[in-house]
Amino acid sequence: MALPPSLRTSITPPELELVASEQLVEIIPLVSMERTAFISGAYGPLRPPTKCKVPLWMASNLKLKKKCHLVPPPWLEVDFLQEKLTQETTSPSFSEMPFRFAEIAKILLDVASDDLPNHERIRTLLKDIREARQAKSREGLSKLDHNELLLHNLCAMEINEIRPFFVRGMGVLTQLTRESANNNNNNNMDQTL
């Protein structure tokens, strides 16, 4: 969702992708490598063709150097995404998706689309799911209550997108509630005098 500069108070999508790049993904290494220590932890050893879990940033780096194949997560398959799209379009609530699905999917589609069967269909399904979820978010924000907002199963990107609207809207609603309470108190005082 494109926001005007005045509302860009949240983390940017590339920053969210950076955070998501710490998620572990499965790879099939094409080269051998001993266990290697990084600031975030030690990963490996890599022994082809044995699958190994590494952070997404490492998998992306290895993939760009043609030193591994990425194994798509189970939620990044056409059947799973088609089922989620059906749930999104038929149910008023958000379907349960991994918290950082949008960021991880974008990275995997950008870096390793050749490792994803039907990657164009996956891209289309993700776009449709995202649009359906954005429509639900907008509907949820239109029902904003000054006490709470219940939107279960939102992902990191969606929370980040609605945060500026939510914070500003809650501020306005709180101010209106206070003004209404003050007006009621003033009316009660006038009646007692």
UniProtKB/TrEMBL annotation:
- Which residues span the membrane? none
Q: Give the Gene3D superfamilies listed for this entry.
A: 1.20.58.1020, 3.40.5.50
Q: Which residues form the DNA replication complex GINS protein PSF2 N-terminal domain?
A: 12-71
Keyword Cell cycle appears in the UniProt entry: no
InterPro entries according to UniProt: GINS_A, GINS_bundle-like_dom_sf, GINS_Psf2, PSF2_N
Q: Which GO terms describe its biological process?
A: chromosome segregation; DNA replication; double-strand break repair via break-induced replication
Q: Hey, which family's this protein in? A: Belongs to the GINS2/PSF2 family.
Assembly information from the UniProt record: Component of the GINS complex.
- The protein's name in its UniProt record: DNA replication complex GINS protein PSF2
